[in-house]
Design brief:
This protein is mostly helical. The chain has nine helices and no strands.
Length: about 200
Amino acid sequence: MLEVKETRPERSHMSTPARPLRRDAQRNHDLLVQAARDVFAAKGLDAPLDEIARRAGVSPGTLYHRFATREALIEAAMQEHVEQAVAIAQEAYDNEDPWQGLDFLMTRVIAFQAADRGVGEAIGERRFPRGSPTGRLLKQYEHLAGLVIERAKEARQADFGVDDLAALVIGAAYAIRSSSARTTLQRQLDLLQNGIRG
C-alpha cells in the first residue's frame, strides 16, 4: 500500500495580514511622520530628508528603511492634513447658503495653506497617485470643493471656475506666507470675494 503523505497548502503572501510594527519600530515611524510634517510645513515637500531624520532623532538609514521613497513619506505625513481639508470642504458644502459656504471654504483653506507650506503644495500640486489613500482623499476634497464652487456660481451667475479659484487660493496663501508681501488673511479674502462677486 502506498503511503499517503499529508500536504499543507503553501501560504500566499497576498493573503497574509501585515504584522503590526514592533514598539520601537512604531515609535520611529511616528517620530518620522511628525518630523516630516514639521519640516514640510516650514520648507515644503522638497525639504532635505536628512533634516527630517535629524529632527526625528533617528539615522538617515532608519528613515529609508521605514520609507523607501520621498513619496511614501509625503503620503504618510500629509494624509491627516488632507483629511482635514476634506472635513473643511464637507462643512462648506453643508452650509445651506451657497456664498457663505464658499466664503468658509476660501477662509479655511487659505489659512490652512498659508500656515503650512507642505499642505499648500500637497493640495495645490496634487502630488499623490490617484489610487493611494491620500490620493483618494484628495479626489474627495476636490469633488466637494467643486460642488461648493459650482453652487455659488449658479446662485450669482458668476464667471469663474474651479481651477480659477484654486489658483487664486494658492496665490493668496503664498502672499500671506511671504514676509515681504505685507498682507493679511483678511485682506486677501476681501480681494478674492470682491473679485469673484464682481
